Amino acid sequence: MLTYLIRRLFAVAVMLVVIVLAVFCIFFLIPKWTGTDPALMFVGKQADKEAIEGVREKLGLADPVLLQLLEFFKGIFVGRDYTGGGDTIHCSAPCFGYSFRNEQEIWPVLTDRLPVTLTLALGAAVVWLIIGLAIGVLSALKRGSLWDRAAMTVALGGVSLPVYFTGLISLALFAYQLGWVNNAFTPFEENAAQWFSGMVLPWITLAFLFGAMYARLSRATMLEVMGEDYIRTARAKGLKEPVVIGKHAMRSTMTPVLTLLGIDLGALMGGAILTETTFSVPGLGQAVLKAINERDLPLILGVTLITATAVVLANLIVDLLYGVIDPRVRLA
Predict the structure, then answer these.
(1) Helix, strand, or coil (residue 84)
(2) In the chain, what are the domain boundaries?
C-alpha cells in the first residue's frame, strides 16, 4: 500500500506542475501568439496607455519566457513583487495573482469564497450520493417494475432540467410561498441555524441534477454486476441476498461512482455558477461570473488554478479509496 501511495503522490506532483505550466501558457503565451496583448487583458476594461505599460512592466511581460515562468512559480511558493510605474506591490505566498483593477491580491478572495463553495459542494454530494445510489440500486434490483420506470423517469427529468429552472421553482414554492426555509445566505459564524436553512435548497437543487446521473449510472452498473459469475457463486454458497448485494455487488458498483464523484467534486470547487447565482450564494462561482463581466483576468486565473488543483486532489483521494474497496488496485 505504501508503494501504491508513493506512486500516486508522485503522479499528483507531476500533474500539478503540468497544470501550472498549462495555465501559464493559456494566460500569458497563447494571447501573444494570437496577437493579443496580455497586459491589456490584465488591466481591465478601461485602460490608458500608461496603465497598460505599467501592468506590462509589473508582470515582466517583456522579460524572456523562462524568466516569466520562474517568477510565476516563485509567486505561488514564496510570493513575488510587482514593480513598475514607480511603485512596488508585494503579493504574499501563495500568490495566485494580483488584480490591478481592484487593487487586491487574489488569494484572500479565493480563501474567503472557497469555504462557501466547499460546503455547497460537499453538502450536495452527500445528498446526491445517498439518494442517487439508493434509487439506482433499488431500480436495478426491481428491474422493469413500476418503481424502476418511475425512478428513471424522475432521473431523466433531473438530468434534463436546468439548475436555474429547478432552483427558481423551489425558491418560489418552499421559500416564498410556504416559508419552510430561508431564502437568503447567512454566514455560519453569524447564525448556524439560519445558515443551514439557507443552504438546504441549494444542496437539494444541485443534488437533483447530479443525483439523477448517479442513479442512472449505479443502476446500469448494478445490472451488469448482478449477472457476473462471482455473484451467482455467492448465491450458490447460500449467502443471504443482503450480504451478496452489500458485500459483493456494491463494491464493484462503487468503482465508477467514485470515479465520477472525484471529477464532479473537483470541478465544483471552481464554483457552481448557476446554483450560486440563483440562490445568491457568495461562492467562487459568483466571483468568477463577476470577474468575467469586469474582465478581471487575475481572478479567473486564480480560480482556474484552484479548480484544476482540486480535480487532481479529488482524483488522488478516489485512487486511495479504490485501494480500500478493491485490494487488487494496490497491485496495479
Answers:
(1) strand
(2) 2-95, 106-331
Contact assessment for residue 69 and residue 38, using Cβ atoms and an 8 Å cutoff: no
Give dist(CA 167, CA 217) in Å, integer.
Answer: 24
Residues 206-239: tens digit of each pLDDT:
888 888 888 888 888 888 888 888 888 888 888 8
283-322: pLDDT as tens digits: 888 888 888 887 788 888 888 888 888 888 888 888 788 7
Superfamily of the domain at 106-331? MetI-like (1.10.3720.10)
Say how far apart CA 14 and CA 262 lie, in whole Å. Answer: 19
Beta strands 104-105 and 98-99 are: antiparallel
Cα separation, 278 vs 271, whole angstroms? 13
* Total length of the chain: 332
C-alpha cell at 134: 439508493
> How many helices (H) and strands (E) in the chain?
15, 4
Q: How far is 222 from 139, CA to CA, in rounded Å?
A: 9
pLDDT computed for residue 33 by the predictor:
81
Q: What is the model's pTM? A: 0.82
Backbone angles phi, psi at 97, to 5 degrees: 125, 170
- Extract the C-alpha cell encoding 116: 462557501
